[in-house]
Amino acid sequence: MDSTSFGELGWRKTLIEGFEHLGLDGHALLMDAGISSSSPEELTGGALSDGVGMAFELAIVRSGDPALGLKMARHPLKPLSVLSHVVLSASTAEQSLRVAVRYVPTFWPMVTMHAQTLPDRTLVILGMVPGKRPVPPACFDFFITMLISGYRIVTGQRAKLLKLHYPGQKPANPQPWLDAF
User: Are 131 and 149 a contacting pair, CB within 8 Å?
Assistant: First the structure.
């Protein structure tokens, strides 16, 4: 039997499929970024953040598309595997979000997620476990797009973002980001 952890299958497969959806070789990108298929469990959260960030940087260079993180998300609940049923069966969007906050680190060990419910909105803080390198904005684009897409699937509604703190420089052409967020 394969010794790959349950959570590792989700994030690795999702990244590979996302890159391949854009016409890139997902396996090669992860390998070139130092994330080999034989030893991902040896990487800590910070080293994994660095590797995933490097994969996004390489993908941007190879594709020439700085907005590729906005286009990669295939199905945001897929990497959660059987846990997606728990997210979808929750009676409210708030309960679904609580499940996601609790279990996202199991399936995305380089991601941090916190949520605070306020009377008229929910504050979601999505981040990456710090590594030695800055996280490229395309990596955040990918995770934010996954979160927003997941909300739409769970609630049937488009999320209304009131404020988005975006790392890095403002893009030269912000229209793809305005359309996505």
Answer: no
Place of tokens 């940087």: 57
Q: Which residue has the higher pLDDT, 33 or 79?
A: 33
Q: Which residues lie below 8 Å from residue 148, measured CB to CB, with a gap of 6+? A: 158, 159, 161, 180, 181
Q: Helices 6-21 and 93-107, interaxial angle, to 10°?
A: 100
pLDDT at 27: 93
DSSP calls for 96-152: HHHHHHHHHHHH-TTEEEEEEE-SS-EEEEEEE---SSPPPHHHHHHHHHHHHHHHH
Contact in structure between 109 and 7 (CB atoms under 8 Å):
yes
Q: Give the residue with greater pLDDT, 52 vs 145.
A: 52
- Return d(Cα 95, Cα 89) in angstroms, integer: 9
Distances (CA, A) of 133 to 52, 58, 126, 144, 160: 11, 14, 18, 20, 31
Least confident of 33-37, 76-80, 102-106: 76-80
Q: Considering the chain, what percentage of its residues have pLDDT values greater than 70?
A: 83
| Residue 133 CB partners (closer than 8 Å, separation 6+) | 49, 50, 53, 54
In contact, 24 and 56? CB cutoff 8 Å: no
pLDDT for 121 equals 82
